[in-house]
Design brief:
Elements lengths: L6 H14 L15 H10 L9 H12 L1 E5 L5 H19 L7 E4 L16 H8 L5 E5 L3 E3 L1 H8 L9 E3 L1 E2 L21 E2 L5 E4 H13 L6 E2 L2 H12 L6 E2 L18 E3 L15 E6 L9 H6 L7 E6 L8 E3 L10 H14 L6 E6 L2 E3 L1 H8 L9 E3 L1 E4 L6 E4 L5 E4 H9 L11 H11 L5 E2 L13 H4 L6 E3 L6 H8 L4 H6 L11
Parallel strand pairs: 1-2, 1-3, 5-10, 12-13, 12-15, 13-14, 17-21
Antiparallel strand pairs: 3-8, 4-11, 5-8, 6-7, 9-18, 15-20, 16-22, 17-20, 18-19
Helix pairs in contact: 5-7, 10-12
């Protein structure tokens, strides 16, 4: 389900949701940064080298390191939380080898349950209050970013910390795109935004400026679609700050690549695999369709990824035995499809095998790799309430909620479906936006959604070349102005090398 062209309509839906929604109203929650207990434990556990004759250099390096606050853009799901903790330990271990004082390393998901913490901007005032006087840089990174602390210090040392700096590996759109609301349509290459995978940094003077701006003009309730682009746009326009300064030492090449000798950061770009891939018989795939698309979209599914699925059903407003489709008794709607989605959830819980741990709901114009999804799901525990896909947000600056956007595919553990349907949370109308209602439901239940950048709401051409270069994508969405069969076999179909070792394969954008 794609909603970008009609945001006014979705804003109306979201407003109506708060009138009709059956859960108690969502709350804005206070936020505070707590650091000392974690820092004390880590300092006690990690070895510290004795100062040598180079004590002056070590002391200077230690002071500079203490002035960096590391923020890992982490998630609360057990798999992601562990990866973030591993990265934190690695940063502190490197820091311990350089002197006695350890830097502050924070995990975003531990920041007092603030629903919008992952969108960064709501945290700026707290960062300013807590670190605005004694720090020089806030350095953000993802859980799979790998950091060479000494090289990072050298890199940041080239910039005057008393000035406003916004540093990162630059991405840009080669053509205007729907996910960025067709911004800079005349020449989209002029606007640069950071690749979070490489890490990105804000100088404290810029943090303080943004905090002051956000205090005088609080964030409006709006959609969060592509955070990295939206942060860059806010810093430049609303924050009246600098454009992104590209930093060549912030890299997304794999740590074992010959290209990384100069890099302060690298990125692990393998598809996650934790033991054996999930059996395809353990994944139930539900395809949402309707009669008018039976002849146009369903043949694409059958030519591409259907063969990868062991358990698949097509849900429509018309029973067509040639596909076959199942009529759930839910009339088709032009938008939203909430009634149909909840009927699918009920059917999965009550009619599929109780031993099937995973449900995937996709649109009929979603292109997906079940083969890769099998590997990815090996890292998640289906006994936990898992709701996985590409994360969007609504109203997160003012206490809103996150949700999984439907077009890229929504993955549920059976436990998540059980908890959802055991609640009283349901659609406020049959044509309500299903993915947004699900986001409100899970938020009200206290079940966090889990983001994976490998799911995509749009087509490959809607994303920067550099962004996709370090991914092994799981899904794309939409057939607009593309050959969807060619897109599948170019971007998603497994090849021999990937089947053997899960390595990233090369893609040829020009083929599209």
């Amino acid at each position: 389900m794609s909603r970008e062209p009609g945001f006014d309509r979705w804003l109306l839906y979201a407003a109506c949701a708060h009138l009709f929604f059956l859960l108690p109203p969502l709350r804005s929650r206070a936020f505070a940064v707590s650091v000392n207990p974690e820092g004390a434990e880590d300092e006690a556990e990690l070895p510290v080298l004795q100062k040598s004759g180079k004590s002056g250099t070590i002391s200077k390096t230690s002071r500079e390191l203490k002035e960096i606050v590391f923020i890992i853009q982490s998630q609360s799901n057990s798999f992601h939380a562990k990866r973030a903790e591993d990265l934190k330990r690695d940063i502190l271990k490197q820091a311990a080898d350089l002197g006695k004082e350890l830097p502050t390393v924070l995990l975003i998901h531990q920041m007092d349950g603030h629903e919008g913490a992952w969108t960064i901007l709501p945290l700026m005032r707290d960062f300013s209050v807590t670190y605005g006087r004694n720090s020089s840089w806030i350095f953000f990174c993802e859980e799979d970013t790998r950091i060479q602390v000494v090289k990072l210090l050298e890199t940041l040392g080239r910039f005057d910390k008393s000035k406003e700096w916004f540093l990162g590996k630059a991405l840009y759109d080669e053509e205007s795109t729907i996910i960025h609301h067709y911004a800079f349509a005349e020449n989209p290459t002029v606007f640069k935004f950071p690749d979070f995978a490489a890490g990105w940094a804000l100088s404290i003077p810029l943090v303080n400026k943004l905090a002051k701006k956000l205090k005088s003009e609080p964030l409006k309730s709006d959609f969060t679609i592509d955070l990295k682009h939206e942060i860059a746009l806010y810093i430049w326009q609303k924050g009246e700050g600098p454009h992104l300064t590209p930093v060549p030492e912030f890299c997304t090449d794999d740590v074992n690549s010959y290209k990384v000798d100069h890099c302060a950061t690298t990125f692990s770009n393998f598809l996650p695999l934790c033991g054996e891939p999930v059996k395809k018989e353990d994944i139930f795939v539900a395809v949402k369709t309707c009669q008018k698309f039976h002849g146009e979209r369903i043949p694409v599914v059958k030519q591409t990824w259907e063969r990868e699925a062991a358990l698949i059903e097509y849900y429509s407003d018309y029973a067509d035995v040639s596909i076959p489709t199942i009529d759930l008794g839910i009339p088709n709607t032009d938008r939203g499809h909430c009634g149909k989605t909840f009927a699918i959830l009920e059917r999965f819980l009550n009619h599929s095998s109780p031993r099937t741990p995973w449900l995937v709901i996709v649109d009929d114009d979603t292109l997906i790799s079940i083969f890769r999804l099998q590997k990815l799901l090996s890292c998640y525990d289906p006994s936990e309430p898992v709701f996985l896909g590409e994360r969007y947000g609504y109203g997160l600056g003012t206490g809103g909620y996150s949700y999984i956007t439907g077009g890229g595919g929504m993955v549920f553990s059976r436990t998540a479906v059980q908890k959802l349907l055991a609640s009283k949370c349901r659609c406020y109308s049959m044509d309500a936006p299903d993915d947004m209602v699900l986001g409100m439901c899970f938020s009200g239940l206290g079940i966090p959604i889990t983001h994976s950048p490998l799911f995509h709401q749009a087509r490959p051409m809607d994303y920067p070349r550099g962004y996709l270069s370090h991914q092994i994508p799981v899904s794309f969405h939409k057939h607009w102005n593309i050959d969807p069969v060619k897109v599948y076999f170019t971007w998603l179909a497994p090849n021999t090398e990937e089947a053997l070792n899960g390595k990233k394969v090369g893609y040829n954008r020009e083929d599209l």
